[in-house]
TrEMBL record:
GO terms for molecular function: DNA binding. GO terms for biological process: phosphorelay signal transduction system; regulation of DNA-templated transcription. Residues 3-118 form the Response regulatory domain. It comes from the Bacteria. The keyword GTP-binding does not apply. This is DNA-binding response regulator.
Amino acid sequence: MTTVVVADDQPVICAGFAALLAAQPDLDVVGTAANGRELVSLVEQHRPDVALVDVRMPVLDGIEATRLITRDHDTRVLILTTFDLDAYVYDAIRAGASGFLLKDVTADRLVDGVRLVAEGSMLLGPAVSRRLVADFASRRTAPAPASPALDGLSPRETEVLHQLARGRSNAEIAAELFIATETVKSHVAEVLRKLGLRDRIQAVVFAYEQGLVQPGG
């Protein structure tokens, strides 16, 4: 059973998302919050697997709440945003969010998104991915100093990291590198472990900051 909390300052939306998720046999909604402070308290109390979080909330916004949650807990955060060009997308990723969904998402997509994030997958729509790459291109004047941890990656793991940075799924990586999907999963886990990264989104951030992948490359 995957435990979930939902945070949104619009009661109807919050209740709707919570009801949809609670109707799934494998999802358990353990609480809802109307602002970021309530959300952080809920996470501290229940330690859910996933927090579905609106960006714009009173008292404490979704970005700062995400930062506090991912700093202190293993809960994965799935951000809800009204616009795919939301100016907060980049900051939320840096705060530790594991993915994004637009608020007009279909019911099936929302449910699948929660499940995927709970499993450790990265969830970025194409438009958000393109904006993320553009943000890195505009904000970075030079690559960050090379991380010594890169030396610990095998050649194959380095290839997998490059593929992760392009937002590719395990199946797409497997096809590109002519290896089994289960082998890809193993390599991804090792990449994250060796680099001390939380999830695939952090791997994307790391790869671009290190200059391993160029926008459009």
